[in-house]
TrEMBL record:
<feature type="region of interest" description="Disordered">
    <location>
        <begin position="268"/>
        <end position="297"/>
    </location>
</feature>
<protein>
    <submittedName>
        <fullName>Signal regulatory protein beta 2</fullName>
    </submittedName>
</protein>
<dbReference type="InterPro" id="IPR003598">
    <property type="entry name" value="Ig_sub2"/>
</dbReference>
<dbReference type="InterPro" id="IPR036179">
    <property type="entry name" value="Ig-like_dom_sf"/>
</dbReference>
<dbReference type="InterPro" id="IPR013106">
    <property type="entry name" value="Ig_V-set"/>
</dbReference>
<keyword id="KW-0393">Immunoglobulin domain</keyword>
<feature type="compositionally biased region" description="Basic and acidic residues">
    <location>
        <begin position="1"/>
        <end position="10"/>
    </location>
</feature>
<dbReference type="InterPro" id="IPR007110">
    <property type="entry name" value="Ig-like_dom"/>
</dbReference>
<dbReference type="Pfam" id="PF07686">
    <property type="entry name" value="V-set"/>
</dbReference>
<keyword id="KW-0325">Glycoprotein</keyword>
<dbReference type="InterPro" id="IPR013783">
    <property type="entry name" value="Ig-like_fold"/>
</dbReference>
<keyword id="KW-1015">Disulfide bond</keyword>
<dbReference type="InterPro" id="IPR051755">
    <property type="entry name" value="Ig-like_CS_Receptor"/>
</dbReference>
<dbReference type="InterPro" id="IPR003599">
    <property type="entry name" value="Ig_sub"/>
</dbReference>
<feature type="domain" description="Ig-like">
    <location>
        <begin position="62"/>
        <end position="139"/>
    </location>
</feature>
<keyword id="KW-0732">Signal</keyword>
<feature type="region of interest" description="Disordered">
    <location>
        <begin position="1"/>
        <end position="20"/>
    </location>
</feature>
Amino acid sequence: MPASLGDHRTRQAPFTTTTPTHEAHSPVCFLQVALFLVLSGTSEQSSWSEWQVLQPEGPILVAEGDTLLLRCTVVGSCADDMIKWVKESSQDQQEVYNFKRGFFPGVTSAVQRTREPLDCDYSIYIHSVTKEHSGTYHCVRFAVSSEDLDTKLGEGTAVTVQGAGDPKPDLWIIQPQDLVEVTTGDTALLNCTVLGDGPPGPIRWFRGTGLSREAIYNFAGLSHPNVTAVRTSDRDFSILLPDVSTKDAGTYYCVKFQRKSNRQYLSGQGSKLRVKAKSTSPTEINEPAVQASPTGE
């Protein structure tokens, strides 16, 4: 069985890399939430029917006092002034973060705005969570005029805040790296630690979310031939991606499945892989000219 929540936070420290630091915890629950969210409608500047909003699958369990990472990627266009986060609970609905306006204590954008035309990240951190942060979160396009309504489709991402006195969860999936940055040709290490028991079933890695997510590695089946497992212990489900290229960029999820139903049981919070092109050194640029020199100098 997993250690107490206090022990769990202590366990995370050895796995933390030099990438942005926080203590985001992993999903745990039997519920399945929306796999694929699509924004529809039109505006004066862009066709909303071409937008896709991707949120991670499965609810998230976070310990009280820790930091929650909520991932959201908009595919098709970037518009900071038209995206916000809202939280629904049994009592009410409230705005959590607005990329256009307002001040939201304890909530920050996970990444700086990059203006990437086909893959824009609108993930957020909620710091020092309390029981009041439990609920379902939606990354939505808000109304651009008084005649429009906020576009909020699907079930969103359910979040449960675990208090110190609550029953212990049966399984934790820990992905300590929010962001992994490598250069083309390097090997990327994606960490995943699984604590606890849970139902019988394999651990699998995927890139992306929704119906179009790509299977990367299966610890109990076929996998990409160039991806290898680390397995330093029976709790280690980390993988290595050798000789990466820019095509390997994306968000990778470590996921637990139930063998009986072959359905997803719970997922890690995701690690974003960013691949930078390798710059050419001055020596490499001048080398052909030196070799072609008639004097040999």
